[in-house]
Specification:
There is one protein chain. The chain has 163 residues and is α+β, with helices and mostly antiparallel strands. It folds into two domains: 3-102, Beta-Lactamase (2-Layer Sandwich), CATH 3.30.450.20; 105-163. It contains five helices and five strands. A hairpin with a 5-residue loop joins strand 1 and strand 2 (27-30). The longest helix is centred in the last third of the chain and has 59 residues, at 104-162. The protein is rod-shaped.
Length: 163
């Protein structure tokens, strides 16, 4: 197996979305995971501006101009996905590459856990409020009974003292 065939096989089988653009943000290469996620065949993607698929291309521009790798997590509402993007320049080839890891399931799980925690906190606060209300009612009843008993006992004591 030649190196080129090996790399092509790895490229094709990688579950992460992989794509490469030039500095003008024209898409040069994509892998099958990209076409599956964005539901667009390679023939409709190659040669197009990446801005058709991404709302914000500033990270790509920064990676190119500053020659740095940028890692970001972003929500793509129109595709219903949450992705980690790793964007890095390939200066010698005059290209910018991007690896996109689909974190949608993990992100939705985290959101669900957060919602459950918020719901649990709300329920706990309601139970505490109800318990405090009941405790205040009981204390009020006990306070009235104690006050009435004290008054009666003081009256009896005063009557006995008078005799």
């Amino acid at each position: 197996m030649s190196d080129r065939t090996l790399w092509e096989t790895l490229w094709d089988l990688d579950p992460n979305c992989l794509f490469v653009v030039n500095p003008q943000m024209e898409i040069k290469v994509i892998n099958p995971a990209f076409t599956a996620l964005f539901q667009a065949p390679a023939t409709e993607v190659i040669g197009k501006n990446a801005a058709l698929f991404f709302d914000d291309m500033s990270d790509f521009q920064i990676a190119w101009e500053q020659e740095i790798t940028i890692t970001r997590e972003k929500s793509f509402a129109r595709y219903g996905t949450y992705l980690r993007l790793v964007i890095f320049p390939l200066k010698q080839e005059e290209l910018i590459a991007c690896i996109m890891v689909n974190l949608t399931q993990e992100h939705e799980h985290d959101l669900q856990v957060t919602r459950l925690k918020e719901e649990l906190l709300t329920n706990v606060n309601q139970v505490i409020d109800k318990q405090m209300s009941i405790a205040q009612q009981i204390a009020g009843l006990l306070g009235e009974t104690t006050a009435e008993a004290k008054i009666s006992l003081l009256k009896i004591r005063n009557m006995l003292d008078e005799d």
